[in-house]
Design a protein that fits this description.
With 334 residues, the protein is an alpha/beta fold. It has 2 domains: 3-119 and 267-332, FAD/NAD(P)-binding domain, CATH 3.50.50.60; 135-263, FAD/NAD(P)-binding domain, CATH 3.50.50. The protein is built from 6 helices and 21 strands. A hairpin with a 4-residue loop joins strand 7 and strand 8 (105-113). The chain binds flavin-adenine dinucleotide. Flavin-adenine dinucleotide is lined by residues 8-14, 31-33, 36-41, 43-44, 47, 49-50, 81-82, 114-116, 119, 137-138, 141, 270, 273, 304-305, 312-315, 317. Residues 8-14, 31-33, 36-41, 43-44, 47, 49-50, 81-82, 114-116, 119, 137-138, 141, 270, 273, 304-305, 312-315, 317 line the site of flavin-adenine dinucleotide (FAD). GO terms for molecular function: thioredoxin-disulfide reductase (NADPH) activity. Residues 4-321 form the FAD/NAD(P)-binding domain.
């Protein structure tokens, strides 16, 4: 039996689409992704810019809430990855067949792709351990946490410069580190960076390790819990404190103190599995028709970070998920 609509991916875009489609009575099915259901926000700590949570909310809790809301309106979840989409059915009654990584196939009248994008990692020691504790991949999301502190940005493209310039609003200083002596960024961005007194450009340099030190729990420290004589002290946090650097020309090494490392070396949209049904740009982002979420194939829609290489925020992904649901709803009623 063919489903009405299958949503691929379980980030803010996917869950929002599911909530709308569930409330429209379309019995959505969601293939959540096998490894990271909940999407990128599951890997972060506090989210302070998603409306509706005046005191902020932890990323995993926000995604649990979205899942519960989608479930409440009847979404069926399948914890797997889609490996391919192909057309099945006829011109009059188009159907799509989705292959899952466990070998199963699903048929559906419409598809919403919300598979997000993966930020590229530096791959140096300390990066994974300190992610969310000073290592970040999103200046808009986390810049605010590093007011009056030294900040490092790694990258040499327009995004890295945009992030570095944005971060000068918060940090006491911003050092942009790039492995070559020339930048991929446009000249106007480089000129703006050079004019900014808070920004230092460090070329021919790579980060070889990110270090952290223990920081006392936020003051006032919570009183130690006493469970039957067993005193449990709040666990100190380990936060970024410095980076090790290496000059790519001379081989010289050095240390630089910093409270944050923003990695801005690009994103890879998770869209390869959809290549045969949805046109993509040269970086792999799915191309949609104007302000809609329609892809190059009728009945296949796309939303969130797998389309959007500009805004990349939970709320913008959620907004686009809403639009995809409404576009799919209209398509299914034709
Ligand atoms: C560390 C970090 C902190 C951030 N902090 C903030 C913040 O504070 N505020 C903010 O607004 N934004 C923040 N962002 C950005 C925000 O997380 C993203 O913009 C948002 O999650 C994008 O939502 P999405 O639904 O498009 O995709 P994602 O959240 O990326 O979700 C994609 C989903 O697709 C699934 N998937 C991928 N491939 C497949 C497949 N083949 N089959 C099935 N499923 C698949 C994945 O498992 C995942 O569930 C942060 C991002 C990161 C990385």
């Amino acid at each position: 039996m063919a489903h009405n609509v299958i949503i691929i991916g379980s980030g803010p875009a996917g869950y929002t689409a599911a909530i709308y489609l569930g409330r429209a009575g379309l019995d959505p099915v969601m293939v959540t992704g096998a490894l990271t259901p909940g999407g990128q926000l599951v890997n972060t700590t506090e989210v302070e810019n998603f409306p509706g949570f005046p005191d902020g909310i932890m990323g995993p809790e926000l995604m649990d809430n979205m899942r519960a809301q989608a479930k409440r309106f009847g979404t069926e979840f399948i914890a797997d990855d889609v490996t391919a989409i192909e057309s099945a059915g006829s011109d009059d009654a188009p159907l799509y067949r989705l292959a899952l990584s466990d070998g199963e196939t699903l048929e559906t009248r419409a598809v919403i792709i919300t598979t997000g994008s993966n930020f590229r990692k530096l791959g140096v020691p300390g990066e994974v351990e300190l992610s969310g504790h000073g290592v970040s991949y999103c200046a808009t999301c986390d810049g605010f946490f590093f007011r009056d502190k030294p900040i490092v940005v790694v990258g040499g493209g327009d995004s890295a410069f945009e992030e570095a310039l944005f971060l000068t609003r918060f940090g006491s200083s911003v050092t942009l580190i790039h492995r070559r002596d020339e930048f991929r960024a446009s000249q106007i961005m480089v000129d703006r960076a050079k004019e900014n007194p808070k920004l230092t450009l460090l070329t021919n340099t790579v980060v070889t390790e990110i270090h952290g030190t223990e920081t006392a729990p936020a003051a006032p420290a919570a009183p130690a819990l006493n469970l039957g004589g067993l005193a449990l002290k709040p666990k100190p946090q380990v936060n970024v404190s410095s980076v090790s650097l290496k000059n790519t020309v001379t081989g010289e090494t050095s240390e630089l103190e910093t409270a944050a490392v923003f990695v801005a070396i690009g994103h890879t949209p998770a869209t390869d599995f959809a290549a045969s049904v949805a046109s993509r740009d040269e970086d792999g982002y799915i191309i949609v028709d104007g302000a809609s979420t329609r892809t190059s194939t009728p009945g296949i829609f796309a939303a969130g970070d797998c389309v959007d290489c500009v805004y990349r925020q939970a709320i913008s992904a959620a907004g686009m998920g809403c639009r995809a649901a409404l576009d799919a709803q209209e398509y299914l009623s034709e």
